[in-house]
Design brief:
- There is one protein chain.
- The chain is mainly α.
- It has three domains: 2-87, no CATH class; 96-201, no CATH class; 223-379, Orthogonal Bundle (hpI Integrase, Chain A).
- The chain is 60% helix and 3% strand.
- The protein is built from 21 helices and three strands.
- It has helices spanning 2-8, 21-28, 33-42, 44-53, 61-67, 73-87, 96-111, 116-138, 142-165, 175-184, 186-189, 193-201, 223-235, 241-253, 257-261, 288-298, 327-336, 341-355, 358-365, 369-379, 384-392, and strands spanning 268-271, 274-278, 283-285.
- Strands 1-2-3 form a three-stranded antiparallel sheet, with helices on one face.
- The chain is flat.
- The termini are far apart.
Length: 396
């Protein structure tokens, strides 16, 4: 391993003060040298790093962006290497969400330069600020936000191109034009709503409307099955500890897997004899069995097979440098033990909404006020709708 590292950093001064000094020292001190050796021998990211180090000049994020090719594996390799270099302090941290969205915007504008002004204004003043705010307030779901931004930019460019093909500027587009364009493929084109709402509000278009895409009613678990799964998570020691912890939070509090995966150990706090879990703003007191389970989860030693993959206080650390477990991987682990994600979440939220008003439900579980009101209506614990119906159609 030392020989391989010496070859890799042969062009770097070995004075302990360069950009790669911390990385080199940490790799040498790794408790699993065989893992480092395998990475140096077989990894695409190690080969890419060797090419970048051989240039003999300081490495930047732009250098990594320039190496990302069109191949399917190239972006993943670059992302992994970027996380590694940031964890080892070779590169400074950056706003990766903004960087990815702006890079995709540049690609789209290169294909549609005639729409550059509108697209850049839309992304800069509407899409990007909201994506940053959601990431700051809600956490987790990084890839979901990136893909959602990509889709909205693509649909906006596609819509503008289609209208231009008909000889129409955006301010000349009518509601009929919008409806006709959406009717061709509404399942994928409805995301243009975000761009059209922005363009209408900013005066770039006449008043236009795109309806929200209807969501299917979530399927719930039977009450007995729900509580049996929760009891299994709390008591079955044969289940992996991370599956038990994530399953219990899902079944009891109805949290999105993106938020569960992004929880840190600081979300679990102990004051005296009581343990609390903070999902948003309000610390929630935990029953003894769940408190013990989450305490054991926070006390788990971090993975030691790879020096850069420190847990960084994640409750569910991932296998990428400095990152938590992805929601998709966590969902597959739960599904492998027969814990369904969406039905479990729907059942838990309906149970909460039956007892708590939206003003309380939102701050406790981290739900948007509109979402909290939606679940309250779904729980249907009041008779207002029934009374309105009876008054509208009185019995004969």
């Amino acid at each position: 391993m030392r020989d391989r590292l010496g070859t890799l950093f042969s062009t770097v001064p070995d004075d302990g003060r360069g950009a790669y000094a911390h990385m080199r020292a940490a790799l040498i001190e790794c408790p699993e040298p065989g893992t480092v050796l395998n990475w140096l021998r077989n990894s695409h990211s190690a080969r890419l790093l060797a090419d970048l180090v051989a240039r003999g000049r300081p490495l930047t994020h732009l250098d990594l962006d320039a190496t990302a090719g069109d191949g399917r594996a190239a972006p993943r390799t670059v992302d992994y290497l970027r996380g590694l270099l940031v964890a080892y302090q070779v590169l400074p941290e950056r706003d990766e969400l903004s960087a990815r969205i702006e890079r995709h915007l540049d690609r789209v504008v290169a294909r549609h330069p005639e729409h550059a002004l509108l697209l850049r204004s839309y992304v800069r003043w509407s899409l990007l600020p909201r994506a940053r705010r959601h990431e700051r307030l809600r956490g987790g779901g990084f890839l979901g936000r990136v893909h959602s931004a990509y889709s909205r930019i693509n649909r906006a460019a596609e819509f503008l191109t289609a209208m231009a093909a008909q000889g129409r500027l955006l301010r000349e587009v009518t509601q009929h034009d919008v409806d006709a364009w959406l009717a061709i493929n509404p399942g994928t084109r409805f995301t243009v709503r975000d761009f059209i709402v922005w363009a209408t509000r900013r005066g770039h278009a006449c008043p236009l409307d795109v309806a929200h895409w209807p969501k299917r009613d979530p399927v719930s678990l039977a009450e007995d099955s729900h509580w049996e799964l929760l009891h299994q998570c709390l008591t079955d020691t044969d289940l992996p500890l991370d599956v038990r912890g994530a399953g219990a939070i899902l079944l009891l509090f109805g949290q999105h897997l993106t938020r569960i995966a992004a929880l840190t150990t600081h979300a679990v706090t102990t004051v005296g004899e009581h343990t609390f879990l903070t999902l948003d703003l309000t610390p929630i007191p935990l029953p003894g069995s769940l408190a013990g389970l989450l305490t054991d989860l926070t006390d788990m030693p971090p993975p030691t097979n790879w020096a850069a993959n420190s847990s960084q206080d994640w409750l569910f650390p991932g296998d990428r440098p400095g990152q938590h477990l992805s929601a998709s991987v966590l969902g597959r682990r739960l599904a492998a033990h027969n814990i369904p994600n969406r039905p479990a979440r729907a059942t838990a939220l309906v149970a909460f909404a039956q007892d708590l008003p939206p003003a309380v439900l939102g701050p406790v579980l981290g739900l948007h006020p509109v979402t909290a009101a939606h679940w309250r209506r779904r729980a249907s614990t009041d008779w207002a709708t029934y009374l309105e119906a009876r008054l509208a159609t009185p019995p004969p």
